[in-house]
């Protein structure tokens, strides 16, 4: 683990109270210590450090008790001291700043503020472990790997909160360093490659996403095997990107590789999450579009279209927003194919269903 995993150590009864999660008792002892310190200013650097440790431990206790605002105040006080004594990039400072970021992001309405501070800490830590961008040999449980895992988790959080640009920038850093240190065939490197590709998709950078996801799929097949969970996940994400490009394209006929990946991904999802999951149905819609543009596959397309329509009929009132979006996509596809009667038929049918549900 890295220095960011450090929990303050006092060296007396408080440590055992914290280990037993006796937060109230630990808080009482720490408050008494800090009150005594107020009346006896530190006479040496050691006493000053001990006072800081007591505040950091109290902040840790308050954080565990869900009192994030109080923890923020204490961590902020120590951070101000350490920035002055050690500088902004010292590990002694960064560990406090990291805790402060946690205090902030766990408060209502302050998530992005906390994530931004956490990003600042991790990007500074990366510079410490990878000076001059030189690769460091990294074991799976080494301090430097811990930093990369934390950065990747932060990127995932940005992605989950609709911040794909921040996510992509962080994932790109992790991918570059993982490739240089643990190698392009390591499971973690392949997983990060996949995540970065998804960031690109969310940014609309579909061609870049396809190139990266293709690399992830190939690396997964070679180094992990086609049945590995990471490889299968990469295949699904590549298929989703192919499908989106096919559906949003200008009517270009998809090649056999695109169709094969879509078919394979649907089988993976049917086996793993079921035929009725939204992701499975979305891929069936994409495959229906692809089939419709291929000579001799229109019957296959119609069969998938009916499966998607059947799902939409059952989901209105349950997953109304998703089902309505799927219906709109199908109507658009029918119009692009020149099937205006079918487009009107579907629009009218689902219009009646929605009106009957609202009555």
TrEMBL record:
Membrane-crossing segments per the record: none
Domain of life, source organism: Eukaryota
InterPro entries: NLR-like, TPR-like_helical_dom_sf
Pfam families linked to this entry: TPR_12
Record protein name field: Kinesin light chain
Organism: Talaromyces islandicus (Penicillium islandicum)
Lineage: Eukaryota, Fungi, Dikarya, Ascomycota, Pezizomycotina
